[in-house]
Amino acid sequence: MTDLADRIIDHYERHAAAWDVDRNREGAWQEKPWHDRFIASLPKAAIVLDIGCGSGAPVARHLVDHGLMVTGIDSSPRFIDLCRQRLPGHEFLVRDMRSLQLDCRFDGVLAWDSFFHLTPDDQRRMFDVFARHAAPSGVLMFNTGTDHGEAIGEYRGDPLYHASLSGDEYRNLLAESGFDIIDHVVEDRQTGGGRTVWLARCMAKP
């Protein structure tokens, strides 16, 4: 399945326009309550790193509408172009999250509907990326699968790779990286569109 994982960047680049339309259809944003909670956990005028920001809507736009400053990264240049058009005045960069090294720490770090496209080993390595970019007391939110394994979904007729670690391993990686779990819900169908969500705070010293 590794070859399908390697095609994720090309997949979203080819389907960027369709994905943007589908993501912004009425009723598609079922997990908005989690993003509202993420925002509520941050100080006013916080700076947020949106890892895998997609087209900037609806999530990054919602952050901006609440007075937050956003730095978004995505591996798709077409997505980043859409972000820059929609949200001028904020920073959007074409970057691979796996090798991300920005000279900045953020009040909030978000990896929504993006992190789960990485292989298990790449997901493990991402916790160093999260820790490197989170300010002390910074908030991290991401979503995952429920159990360790790989799965192939489908989008617009093309296979789409997903992977997950076990819940216990995510807990251990968060703790080892200096994060305390604020909340964790498995397959939240009421406020998360069925997603398994992790919300944590960085307790590492400056």
Summarize the structure.
The chain is α/β, with parallel strands linked by helices.
In words, what does this structure look like?
This protein is α/β, with parallel strands linked by helices. 33% of the residues lie in helices and 31% in strands. It is built from 8 helices and 9 strands. The chain has helices spanning 2-5, 8-14, 16-23, 32-40, 59-65, 77-86, 120-133, 167-176, and strands spanning 47-51, 69-74, 91-94, 106-111, 134-144, 149-155, 158-164, 179-188, 195-202. The strands form 2 sheets. A 7-stranded mixed β-sheet has the order 3-2-1-4-5-9-8, with helices on both faces. Strands 6-7 form a two-stranded antiparallel sheet. Residues 48-138 form the Methyltransferase domain.
Task: Tell me the span between the first and last alpha carbons.
Answer: 39 Å
The CATH topology: Rossmann fold
Question: Into which percent range does the helicity of residues fall?
Answer: 25-40%
In one word, what is the shape?
globular
The number of E-state strands comes to 9
Number of domains: 1
Our Rg estimate from Cα atoms comes to 16 Å
